[in-house]
Amino acid sequence: MSIAPLTSNSSPNSLILIHRSIRRRNGIIFMAIPTSRSINSRSFSLPDLVFKIPRTSSKRSRNPLKFVSPVMEWQNCTAKMEVDIPASVAYKCYSDREAIPKWMPFISSVKVLEDNPTLSRWSLKYNAFGQDIEFSWLARNLQPTPNQKIHWRSLEGLPNRGVVRFYPKGPSSCLVELTVSYEVPPLLSPVASALQPLLERLLQRGLKSFATFAKKYQTA
C-alpha cells in the first residue's frame, strides 16, 4: 500500500486529495481522501472517491490464434445450343462418356471403370494463359432422367460437378444445355476472372462439335 499527494491548492475552499493505492491481484484500487478541514468529507460518497484501474496480464493467451484455410472460389459456366437431332439421340450420344474427347476440345481422355460403370476417370489438357494446363479427376454419374438429364460430381481430383439437360424442340431437334461448376485451382487463381469466359467459350465450341458428332452417331 502506498500514499502520495494527488492535487493541492492554496484556496481555503479547495479540496486537497491524497490517493491511497491498494494493490490487488486483479488491479489497483485508488481512494481519494479529502484533507482540508473546510470541506465536509461526509458530502462525498464512497463511489465518488474510489475507483479501480484493472491490471493487464502479461501472461500469453492460452487460446492461440488458429489459421483458417481460405474458402476456395467456385465458378459456374453454362452453354446451350439447339441441335438437329431428337432429344433421345442427343441423350444417348452424350451418355457415351468415352466418346466425349472426340468433340469436347479440352477433355483429353475419359475411361469408364469396368467394375463400376457409374465411375469414370477424366483427364483435361489445354494450353491457355501461356502454359500447359493439366488436371484429372474421378467422377460419379448420378441417377439420370432418361432422355432429359445427365448429371455428375467429382469424388477426387479437380473438384467439379455438372448437369446436361435435353429439351425437345420438335420431333427431330432439341436444345442441349450444359452447366459445369468447378473449384478454381490455386494455380489459376491469378487469372480466375478470365477463366470463366474462357471455359464458357470452350463449352460452346464443344456443343457445336457435339451437334455434328451426334448426327454421325445417329446414323452409325
UniProtKB/TrEMBL annotation:
Q: Where is the Coenzyme Q-binding protein COQ10 START domain?
A: 83-210
- Name under which the protein is recorded: Coenzyme Q-binding protein COQ10 START domain-containing protein
